[in-house]
Amino acid sequence: MAKKHLVKVTYYDFLKLLWAVVIFFLALMIWVKEWWEPSSMIETDYYEEFSGEDSLDKGISLDEEEHGAALDKSTAQKLASVCALHQDWCNKIVWSGYFSDYDKIGYVSQYFVIFNFLDRGITEGSDIKKEFKTLVINSNAGKRRWWATWTKITINLDSFTDISQFWQVLTHEFWHIVDLWVLKGNSMAKNSNYTEFWKVKFSVDDPSLEYYKYSWNSEDIRKSTAQEKDFCSQYWMSNPFEDFAECHNLYLNNRKLFRTMASESSVLKNKFNFFANLFGYQILWDNKTALPYNWWRPWDTTVLI
Ligand SMILES: [Zn+2]
Q1: Number of domains in the chain
Q2: How far is the centre of ligand 1, averaged over its atoms, from the C-alpha of 98 (Å)?
Q3: Of the listed ranges 50-54, 100-104, 135-139, the one predicted with least confidence
Q4: What is the CATH number of the domain that holds 74?
Q5: pTM above 0.90?
Q6: What is the whole-number distance in angstroms between the Cα of residue 242 and the centre of ligand 1?
Q7: Span from the CA of 26 to the centroid of ligand 1 (angstroms)
Q8: Local confidence band at 292 (pLDDT 50, 70, 90 cut-offs)
């Protein structure tokens, strides 16, 4: 008896099936690509939008931080009342070496200002109050001047030639924490061109990657087209993480200078807009510390006061 075929597949049916499979996979690829591809951080061109309107400052008010200490209190009471504004933030500080209460008030106030700004100003990512764990302030010299590791910042004050460097160093180091721990993607797919302390951890939709790509092919390789005028400081041109932290300092403290420098470089204009979008154009100060601008890049914004 001849074998009965329940379904007869013609050549024409086979072609239809083939097309259906091809279309299905094409649609899948487009969907996956869109899903994985991060949206750009630059939604608004603040550089163009506010050209000539530098006076527009939506800077976060710091009054809240300053009204705590009344004049008739002892220094110890003043320190306690400053800390009481954010006791949990104060608890993250580890004091090492000798500090007077008066000194401590100065450091705590600066730490509160930057921490408060980053907490309230950053429009993306996870909660810095949870991510950041420890601030070690050491009055002595250490093996290194200052550094950030994982969720901790260590600053050895004795390494400073001028104590007013504390602010620039603190904001610089905080940006490493933000870069690595606050700005994160959700994708399981990883980008192996950049590492967190030599471990491949960057999700392909990590917002920081968009910034790095302006000047870098990878953690160790600068774009062949990169020029000095594309960077906020000369000294840190060797590393995308330092590049990021240095431009952060410039945006926060010297947006006006940043704008002037960006007028000479479309890459730096993108970097400016990256921060402007991330912070909703808010800054802490415009020209708080007047950096001298000429054709020369500041050597290192952590030491240029
Ligand atoms: Zn650094």
Answers
A1: 1
A2: 26
A3: 50-54
A4: 3.40.390
A5: no
A6: 5
A7: 43
A8: very low
